[in-house]
């Protein structure tokens, strides 16, 4: 049974409580807020033979088959490997499922996530199913980046935005989800997760708190010349490259902001505040901008999964970071 998150209450009433269901829904919003869980709940409800109010009963044949992963009338389409594309052949299989008759005599429900991982051929193949609705089939499309979808796909769905929960609500939920963390740690995790509570939980599971402490300590030693770029680059080999680039990118933003505003409220998380302030005072703005440009360009390469030499890239990052203090 998919988890019901408290910030989805009114969204759920709105979606599940419709008197008539659309042929296709597009659930979109930032990653890590439970869109998939919402889609799975809706799938269970739409398939259930005896719903209780707005919930699947959990007792009928359909609910049992769904729980066992052997329901003949549901179909989940996702990339075969994480972060890879959904292939056109996969969509063709889905299309032939959509035209079949429901085996249990009720609805058929299709869940696709993330929709943006379909390339243009795959998306075009899907369009057929969206254009020629088969009476009893409901498609649930989940997207973290709806701006990347074909307009023709979007226009054929009922679009449902799933907003980020408020910070207060996320923290309240995190208190239950991460009872062993201090309130400060939960605040920090939520900030690192850009406000997504489920991302905060997975960052915590990945040991991000410890990784962040290691990196912050390393940056401080680098600036005091107590550690070399090579040593640090090698010592950070377990930390995701994208996370490292995100942090350095964030710090360069904070430096530039402080140079412009001198606003001590805008120095970011406590662990780096003094360093950010120091670098803002000591570094020429042109230099910070140049380093930031470079970081953004490298971050793009990391995102596109280019074949990068990790240690060399980090060394280069740290050499330019260590060179920040000074004019020019
Ligand atoms: Zn049921």
Write the SSE topology.
Blueprint: H1 9-16, E1 24-28, H2 35-47, H3 61-67, E2 74-77, H4 88-99, E3 108-112, H5 120-131, E4 137-143, H6 151-154, E5 158-161, H7 167-177, H8 183-192, H9 197-205, H10 208-223, H11 229-235, H12 241-261, H13 273-282, H14 285-303, H15 310-322
Parallel strand pairs: 1-4, 1-5, 2-3, 3-4
Provide an overview of this structure.
The chain has 328 residues and is an alpha/beta fold. The protein has 3 domains: 6-161, 3-Layer(aba) Sandwich (Rossmann fold); 166-205, Orthogonal Bundle (Helicase, Ruva Protein, domain 3); 207-322. The chain has 15 helices and 5 strands. The protein has helices spanning 9-16, 35-47, 61-67, 88-99, 120-131, 151-154, 167-177, 183-192, 197-205, 208-223, 229-235, 241-261, 273-282, 285-303, 310-322, and strands at residues 24-28, 74-77, 108-112, 137-143, 158-161. Strands 2-3-4-1-5 form a 5-stranded parallel sheet, with helices on both faces. Strand 2 (74-77), helix 4 (88-99) and strand 3 form a beta-alpha-beta unit. Helix 4 runs parallel beside helix 5, helix 8 crosses helix 9 (197-205) and helix 12 (241-261) packs across helix 13 (273-282). The radius of gyration is 24 Å and the shape is elongated. The structure holds zinc ion. Residues 48-50, 56-57, 59-60, 62-63 line the site of zinc ion. Zinc ion (ZN) binds at residues 48-50, 56-57, 59-60, 62-63.
């Amino acid at each position: 049974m998919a988890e019901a998150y408290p910030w989805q209450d009114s969204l759920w009433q709105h979606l599940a409580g419709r008197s008539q269901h659309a042929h296709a829904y597009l659930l979109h919003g930032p990653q890590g807020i439970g869109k998939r869980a919402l889609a799975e709940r809706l799938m269970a409800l739409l398939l259930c033979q005896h719903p209780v109010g707005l919930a699947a009963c959990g007792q009928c044949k359909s609910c049992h088959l769904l729980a066992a992963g052997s329901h003949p009338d549901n179909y989940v389409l996702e990339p075969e490997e994480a972060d890879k594309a959904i292939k056109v052949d996969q969509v063709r299989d889905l299309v032939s499922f959509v035209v079949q008759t429901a085996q249990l005599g009720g609805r058929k429900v299709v869940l696709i996530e993330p929709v943006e991982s379909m390339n243009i051929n795959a998306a075009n193949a899907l369009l057929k199913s969206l254009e020629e609705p088969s009476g009893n089939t409901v498609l649930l499309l989940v997207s973290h980046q709806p701006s990347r979808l074909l307009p023709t796909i979007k226009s054929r769905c009922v679009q449902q935005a799933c907003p980020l929960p408020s910070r207060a609500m996320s923290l309240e939920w995190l208190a239950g989800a991460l009872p062993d963390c201090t309130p400060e740690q939960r605040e920090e995790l939520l900030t690192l997760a850009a406000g997504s509570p489920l991302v905060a939980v997975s960052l915590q599971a990945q040991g991000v708190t410890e990784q962040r402490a290691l990196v912050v300590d390393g940056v401080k030693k680098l600036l005091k010349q107590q550690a070399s770029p090579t040593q640090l680059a090698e010592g950070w080999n377990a930390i995701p490259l994208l996370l490292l680039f995100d942090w350095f990118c964030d710090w360069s933003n904070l430096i530039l902001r402080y140079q412009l505003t001198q606003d001590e409220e805008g120095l970011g998380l406590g662990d780096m505040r003094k360093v950010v302030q120091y670098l803002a005072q000591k570094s020429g703005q042109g230099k910070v901008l140049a380093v930031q440009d470079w970081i953004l360009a490298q971050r793009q390469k990391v995102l596109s999964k280019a074949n990068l030499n990790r240690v060399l890239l980090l060394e280069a990052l740290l050499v330019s970071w260590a060179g920040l203090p000074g004019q020019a």
